[in-house]
Amino acid sequence: MQLDTTAYIRVSAPDSLGTSASGGAFATSTGDVLEVACFGPGVFRLRIGANTLPDYGLVVGRAQRCDITQTDPGVWSFAAGDTRLELTGEPLSFRLLHDEQPIITSITDEHFRGFLRLPVIGRTRAGQQWIASFALASGEPVYGLGEKFGPLNKRGQLVTSQVDDALGVNTGLSYKSVPFCWSPGNSGAPKGDAWGIFVNTPGRVTHGVGHPEWSHRSYAVIVDDEALDLFLIAGRDPAQVLDRYTTLTGRAPDVPLWSLGLWMSRAYYRTADEAMAVAEDLRARKIPCDVLTLDGRAAWDVQTRFDFRWDPARYPDPAATLARMKRHALKICVWEYPYVSIHSQLFHELAAKRFLLTNASGEPYVFGWDNSPATSSFSGVLTPLPESGIVDFTNPAAYSWWRDAHEALFKAGVDVIKSDFGEQVPEDAVAFNGDCGARLHNVYPLLYNRCVYEATKKFAPAEAQPPIVWSRAGWTGSQRYPTQWGGDPQSDWEGLAASIRGGLSWGMSGGPYHASDIGGFYGSEQPSAELYLRWLQMSVFSSHMRMHGIGAREPWAFGQETETIARQWIEFRYRLLPYLRTVIVQATTTGLPVMRAMPLAFPNVALTRGYETQFMCGDALLIAPIVAPGGEVEVAMPPGAWYDLASRQRLPGRQVIRYRATLDRFPVFGREGYALPLGPVVKHTGEIDAANPLAALYLFGKPAQPLDGFAQAKIALTDGRAMVAAASTVKVETFGDAAGIAVEALA
Predict the structure, then answer these.
(1) Which residues have a catalytic role annotated?
(2) H-run or E-run covering 744
């Protein structure tokens, strides 16, 4: 992308228009008003431009008091806690300081002719596109920007924040984009202070992250919107930046215990009997599972697709059919999307109510999928989707109607909705709230999934609460409506590696939950047994896990040996649930993801930073997925010491090892000083005793971290000494030297 810097009017802000308790306003050379506001310690807002269009509630935080001083003529300081924003009006520049160390500064790249290579802030003459530019130090990495499947470090890349049906995980397109990035800071700096930058907009954002064609020493954003709305975030480390970002845009809520079990799916079960047979086989083969998904056209007529009406040929009595499936202690998930086929009577009903997006003339916008043999995404893979209207969630009446139409589904026995798609809003569509499709496009999946989430909260049975959806597309704030899965990966080793990176990138962008299709979704060949098992083993340590794809993904489809190994690892997943619950508590209170990439977990450790498919599952477990055939992987051990769960060998940190694993083994390492609470082997989460979920407690060396939240086990630290107590029903196992570790009976 060529950048014409002369297309932008460079902004200066020479004159103060006054201050308030939370910020100030400045007159600018373009006639716009530049507003500065504090949103709490470490968070400052810079906003310039019009304010006439919907903002969609992407920001839930509120402005807060800060200390304001004019340090020199034309130089203003806004301070809150340990952070201070310094603004110079003419020529415009700014610095964000944490503990008086500058961590974000406006661009410093000077052209040979004496001016800054890119504007600090600039806008086009029409005022519908803005640019802002920041300095980057050599070697300063940048992470986040949503679910991106390529390298985690975006330095050197040109990245677009735009929601797309990516049709895989092999390009820069992504289903979930978020215009928020962060850095652990300059590794050569004396302090490791971290920073984040969030662009508050529903519009398209282009990020030149040290993009050499623009400036390899600068980070520039181009924003397609009527205003430029930036939040600058400071923190002692990336975890605090994520904490502050998710405080600003909303925390992810808790998810139900059953959702952490196995989800079984296929594209798709063609009949109710086929789905029933899978449910029966799961129980007969003693494979733990909690959810059975009726995906795609499994329950809906091929011409009308989703319109809340079951296919009468296959589901003449849906309540009775689902009841038979649920006798196997399974929750039922059904598929939907926010489009209404022109072949459905519902299309005409919603069109008459003006509940659909329209074209410029006010007629329902009919979206036509690409069905050309040469370019269609469906050709030879899936049944083409029909021309459809698009539900207008900006219309409060349409929103309420769509939400409440779910009541009959839940009454029939549905527990959860797979809210698929949401990426297809044409630029020239017109919404009820007056917005154009180009501006609605990115935020549309947020509105759609919020609607389905609220329907689930309102109508799902009590035993299925708290609510959850299984969604694909997302934007800023989508973490408020969990959970998300990573779209449609190719069924090969690179598809696995890219899916891991996508999940980690989503986690570094404020989304703590993620899943991928075990075995991959599509490909010219079905996944091998080896690939299938390595994907499954990795997914044991993600927040959610689902087997899904075109073709059979049930473990027995890959042979007896694979079924046996798969069962063992799924059983371990269910044993892991007490630990995962503690990790999810962290996620809901701090914004930290379940799967934590190395730069997030160990931001100042250069050794591990480049290992972009290994991750921490919570604080205690290091996971090194095997992403190539042959059973070998290179593992960068972080600082400290680690215990191989398979061999129980203690491994010193700060080294790189070559790990070899047979198909039944997988590289998982316990962190010295931590404990791992484990439950019993169960067939489904309904067999777990909520009051007494523990069966075992692994101690990785001498405990150095507390453990609480369980009635059956506790680790307390007093004056540097660890006190371990456990009920008689909990088997305590120590990895490493057990000398000096005493386990008391829990009173």
Answers:
(1) 420, 423, 488
(2) strand 743-745
